[in-house]
Design a protein that fits this description.
By secondary structure, the chain is of the alpha+beta class. The chain has 5 helices and 16 strands. The strands form 3 sheets. A 7-stranded antiparallel β-sheet has the order 5-6-7-14-9-12-16. The chain has a 5-stranded antiparallel β-sheet with strand order 11-10-13-8-15, with no helix packed on it.
Length: 278
């Protein structure tokens, strides 16, 4: 199936002036992840296919030639892949809802982009029915459907994008000059994706689009030396447990360097890719 089942332009929402919004489509994005409720599905990743139509106004981007006035689809596709690989959703319906909430959340300063007004999203499971057919779910959501809770923290703030009893998805927004102190987790499985340029992790610079899965009991720390807020996309399984954010002293030998996984293309991971923001 090469396109979303409804014609994106014919059904496009309209802006305040009554003009149809523009559409950016991401088609047939492959992701291997755990998704499903049956025991056989909980232990082994399976292929999914993701199709997304984003409704927004690209007029300013066309006039000024800036990525911050549209959506960088290379970055967004990496962020959606990170969420699917990290969250281990039990149902396609839950996965689709969480992804829509993420896409429609207001953008942050360090990864500035145009606001997305609505999204049509489809998830397909090519192997779910064997050769008997293709199982898929398509949803449509608008930005005005959602309100997002926030929590103020000593390091800045947390946006609660999605959470249920199994998983929580958050944006950790680290204010200029602030730090997420050295801490570890003993219950939660935590994955994090650095969205902007300029954060220090374990005291070392980390490129935008780098993802990490934290082993339990491994101390880690973020510092923001930049003049603007820096954001980390965080997935906790189960949803965040406050008493499991255990602050610990820095080990005598220093914090262990960690290797992450690149979710952005190389060209989108360097500070030069968004030099206009600094």
């Amino acid at each position: 199936m090469n396109r979303l089942s409804s014609d994106a332009f014919a059904s496009a929402p309209r802006d305040a002036q009554g003009r149809p919004l523009d559409v950016i489509e991401l088609r047939q994005l492959p992701v291997n992840c755990i998704v499903g409720v049956y025991p056989a599905e909980r232990g082994t990743p399976q292929p999914l296919e993701l199709d997304v139509a984003l409704y927004l106004d690209t007029r300013k981007a066309a006039a000024e030639g800036s990525l911050r006035d549209t959506v960088d689809y290379a970055r967004l596709s990496g962020e959606l892949r990170f969420l699917l690989e990290s969250a281990d959703f039990r149902m396609l319906e839950t996965a689709a809802e969480a992804l829509c909430r993420y896409i429609l959340a207001p953008p942050t300063e360090d990864s500035a982009r145009a606001p997305v007004r609505a999204v049509t999203l489809r998830l397909s499971k090519p192997e779910a029915l064997g050769r008997a057919g293709l199982a898929s779910l398509q949803v449509h959501r608008t930005a005005d459907e959602y309100q997002y809770e926030r929590e103020d923290k000593p390091f800045g703030r947390v946006d609660i994008l999605f959470q249920d009893e199994h998983v929580g998805i958050y944006r950790l927004r680290i204010a200029p000059g602030r730090t997420i102190p050295t801490h570890e987790h003993r219950v939660m499985s935590e994955s994090e994706l650095v969205l902007g340029h300029g954060l220090l992790l374990q005291g070392r610079p980390v490129l935008a689009g780098t993802g990490f899965r934290w082993p339990k009991h491994l101390p880690h720390r973020y510092d923001n030396p930049r003049a603007i807020e820096q954001t980390v996309l965080c997935v906790d399984r189960p949803a965040f447990i406050p008493h499991d954010e255990v602050e610990v002293p820095e080990p005598p030998g220093g914090l262990v360097p960690v290797e992450g996984r690149a979710y952005y293309p190389a060209a989108a991971s360097t500070p030069e890719a968004e030099g206009e923001r600094w």
